[in-house]
Please model this.
Amino acid sequence: MEIITMSLGSMGVNTYLIIDEDTKETAVVDPGAGADLIEKELNKRNCNLKYILLTHAHADHIGAVSYLKEKYPEADIAVHEADVDILKTPHKNYSNAILNRAVSIDADLILKADSKILIGKNEFTIISTPGHTPGSICYYIPNVLISGDTLFKGSVGRWDLFGGDLSSLRESVKKLLRLPEDTKVLPGHGPASTIAFEKQNNMFSEI
Model:
């Protein structure tokens, strides 16, 4: 399995390409911007795009979803059930404010806690981590956590937007810090980290 990080858009969203090197089955996680750059990378690597995976439905993470769905209609757009409405509702996903256009997207695949996503032979488990949004999730495979805007290096996502909740976010971070310490954390913004580093340095590590 290969994971490629692309920092895209004015808000520097980390978009991840998860590629099974044997089958070329691929998932794009949080394609927030740079649709043409994502498409170019997929084509360069002869990828078979199977999923467009979302960690949550805020506009900075979904700006390129519709373009990719049009180019790769067989790819399933996947989001947690609690963010389905946010994904479809521009004033809840802040697309007018962030993208200067209204974005309303229907999901193909509704995820729940402990759902599984198979990319080639690589099985990712969905970890429900509400707080940033009600349906914020992480994608976990042993040694790798794609944490979206729940957990950043040394910090956490904001909780003052639609559906955000500080108490829920605290519990979600606590859950993530129980993962093995050698787990690599790939966040929605900023540099990568590890669970060991977050346990020692994160602002919420003492909760």
About this structure: The first strand starts at residue 2 and ends at 8. Residues 56 and 136 are 5 Å apart (CA to CA).
